[in-house]
Design a protein that fits this description.
With about 650 residues, the chain is an alpha/beta fold. It has 23 helices and 15 strands. The chain has two domains: about 325 residues, Alpha-Beta Barrel (TIM Barrel), CATH 3.20.20; about 130 residues, Cobalamin-binding domain (Rossmann fold, 3-Layer(aba) Sandwich). The strands form three sheets. Strands 3-4-5-6-7-8-9-10 form an eight-stranded parallel barrel, surrounded by eight helices. It has a five-stranded parallel beta sheet with strand order 12-11-13-14-15, with helices on both faces.
């Protein structure tokens, strides 16, 4: 029984049914006594629920509730609340066969000290990691130190993936050549050597705006194709597009365009398409949005198979995918929540069929990780593999109408963007002309808006922030620094949490300089039951910007509120109560606050009242609200949004 493929479980189930099957097969119709549901019945039930919760007008057309629950991704893909077999296109089978041990647990290392690097690498390999993603250059291992750092690493057992992205092009080539010389000096059988040389001149252009021609990789790629069957020469790294704020379809399209660019130069150098494809490895981001990540990785395989088929590669090798938990989703504030983000991203990468998965340590946005954080990152994947058994079923998401539909829609959207890049002359031309940057900028702006209005929440940062959070101290470069992204002329870096974290840093600086954080008074009108919900909303929003709140508590008249406001010693007040109380008292309370010295008066909710400076409400710009408060209490400029 082959439990590693999931086939054995199904066989046992079928045998059990056969043993207990009645003579009359109709007796197995277990749902025969229940009405057969249809889409119209389900839609009517949705309408009824939304009407009861006042989310749907009584005069709305039948089925309007389904439309109200349908949303559109940044790629224009509509995601409905229900999918059936009628919504799914017939997709070709995905080649997601896995080794019995599961996917490759790939740990990243970037140490300038060779002794520390070697110690950390050996610790990882002895405790769950199965390959090493090694930074080479100024933020990692010097080329000359490779023999010492890899001392004790069996190069025919543990693949080493080189990454000189944060270095110069010469270091990238020199590192690759040094690695091959090291394997030869150790007497490693060329047929058994495993690893990736990490060559990626197109990716260097995306990161920095310049780089060598793709032809620079040809000599090493030809050598790998000829002599090293388990080594890959080139990495098609799409992380720069994701890091810049690009969408899933844009990331896939760039990966396709870059991959095709490499195929062209390798075929021109004499390789056939299948052999050229064999020396490529693809790198994509995995995020805490599990279903889009699963669909993206599945779509990547479909798209690459289509490219190879168009190139005449009938029996081309399957695409090799390295999924990395997106470094831009890691936060500096409340960094322990990154454990959850990394776990979900690792889960989605595994379910999506990644061949290798990297889950960075939770403190990757703060600086160099510790032995403890590396251990937790390793164990995250070990749990997914060995306790959750995610790798025992090939393509676990296959057959899900939602995932299959999302895979198909995302693949179509990515193919359309890929055609735009090809029409512009390919990946390099699209990068050099600014087309990729323009495409990504549009999506980044949409992301920035969603983060500002908290439609895209960041737990521990824009939502449920701990005002007194003290992140663990770390030194050294962050993961984004190590990846060499955001260079002058290249695609920028966009961290969604950065705008909120800048205000938190500014608040900490004010506390250190003056002994107090920015403060806002919550004018809580009426008893607790009346004002608690709005006060809680305002408190949560303001704390995310590093702004302290004090409130009046339950109040019965304006005099109590005025006295509490005076004691709070702040020029900013937020009215918090029910809509009924606002109608009755808001204008008088605003006037009283003004008379007591308030320079900025807001209202939690959407009720209009004379004298207000604005509102704190769902859909409002939280970052703009912070800017107004800080303008009254601090004249230092907030850091630029990354």
């Amino acid at each position: 029984m082959d439990t590693d493929t999931g086939a054995g479980t199904g066989q046992v189930a079928r045998e059990a049914l056969d043993r207990h099957a009645p003579d009359n097969p109709e007796e197995l119709a277990l749902a025969a006594d229940f009405p057969v549901p249809d889409r119209a019945t389900w839609a009517a039930a949705v309408d009824a629920v939304l009407r009861r919760s006042d989310r749907l007008d009584d005069a709305a057309e039948p089925g309007a509730g389904v439309d109200a629950l349908t949303w559109t991704t940044l790629d224009g893909v509509r995601v409905a609340p229900l999918f059936t077999a009628d919504d799914v296109a017939e997709l070709p089978a995905l080649d997601t066969a896995r080794r019995a041990a599961g996917w490759d647990v790939r740990q990243r290392h970037a140490h300038t000290n060779q002794a520390r690097a070697r110690e950390a690498i050996l610790a990882d390999l002895a405790n769950g990691a199965t390959s090493i993603w090694l930074a080479v250059g100024p933020v990692g291992t010097a080329v000359a130190d490779l023999p010492a750092v890899l001392d004790g690493v069996f190069l025919d057992l543990a693949p080493v993936v080189l990454d000189a992205a944060a270095s110069d092009p010469d270091t990238e080539l020199l590192g690759a050549e040094a690695f091959l010389r090291l394997a030869e000096a150790r007497g490693v059988d060329p047929a058994a050597l495993r690893g990736t040389l990490g060559l990626d001149p197109i990716g260097r252009r995306a990161r920095t705006g310049s780089g060598p021609d793709p032809e620079s990789v040809v000599p090493l790629a030809l050598r790998v194709a000829r002599d090293l069957p388990q080594v890959r020469a080139i990495v098609v790294d799409a992380l720069p597009v994701h890091v810049a704020g690009g969408s899933d379809a844009q990331e896939l399209a760039y990966a396709l365009a870059a991959g095709v660019g490499y195929l062209r130069v390798l075929v021109a150098a004499g390789l056939d398409v299948a052999t050229a494809a064999r020396v490529l490895e693809f790198r994509l981001a995995a995020t805490a949005e599990q279903f889009p990540t699963i669909a993206k990785l599945r779509a990547a395989r479909l798209l690459w198979a289509r490219v190879l088929g168009a190139g005449g590669a009938v029996e081309a090798p399957p695409q090799v995918l390295h999924a990395v938990a997106a470094p831009t989703m890691y936060t500096r504030r409340d960094p322990y929540t990154n454990l959850l983000r990394g776990t979900v991203a690792g889960f989605a990468a595994g379910v999506g069929g990644a061949d290798a998965v990297t889950v960075p340590p939770f403190d990757a946005a703060l600086g160099s990780p510790t032995a403890f954080s590396r251990r937790v990152a390793r164990n995250t994947q070990s749990l997914l593999l060995r306790e959750a058994h995610l790798a025992r079923v090939a393509d676990p998401a296959g057959g899900s109408w939602f995932v299959e539909s999302l895979t198909d829609a995302l693949a179509r959207a990515a193919w359309a963007v890929f055609q735009e890049l090809e029409a512009a002359g390919g990946a390099i031309a699209a990068l050099d002309s600014g087309l990729v940057a323009e495409q990504v900028a549009r999506v980044r702006a949409a992301r920035q808006h969603e983060v500002a209005v908290r439609r895209r929440p960041l737990t521990g940062v824009s939502e449920f922030a701990d005002l007194h959070d003290e992140p663990p101290a770390r030194t050294g470069p962050t993961l984004l620094d190590e990846l060499g992204v955001g260079g002058a002329g290249g695609l920028p870096v966009y961290r969604p949490a950065a705008a909120y974290e800048d205000y938190r840093d500014r608040s900490d600086a004010l506390l250190a300089d003056t002994g107090a954080r920015p403060r806002v008074f919550l004018a809580t009108l009426g008893p607790l039951a009346v004002h608690a919900a709005r006060a809680g909303y305002a408190r949560n929003l303001l704390h995310a910007g590093g702004i302290e709140t004090v409130d009046a508590g339950p109040t019965s008249d304006d005099a109590e509120v005025v006295a509490a406001f005076t004691a709070a010693e702040t020029p900013v007040a937020v009215l918090c109560s029910s809509d009924a109380v606002y109608v009755e008292r808001a204008e008088a309370v605003v006037a009283a606050r003004r008379a007591a010295g308030a320079r900025h008066v807001l209202l939690a909710g959407t009720t209009l009242a004379a004298g207000l400076d604005g509102h704190l409400a769902a859909g409002g710009d939280a970052l703009a609200a912070y800017a107004a408060v800080y303008a009254l209490v601090d004249d230092r400029a907030v850091g630029a949004v990354q």
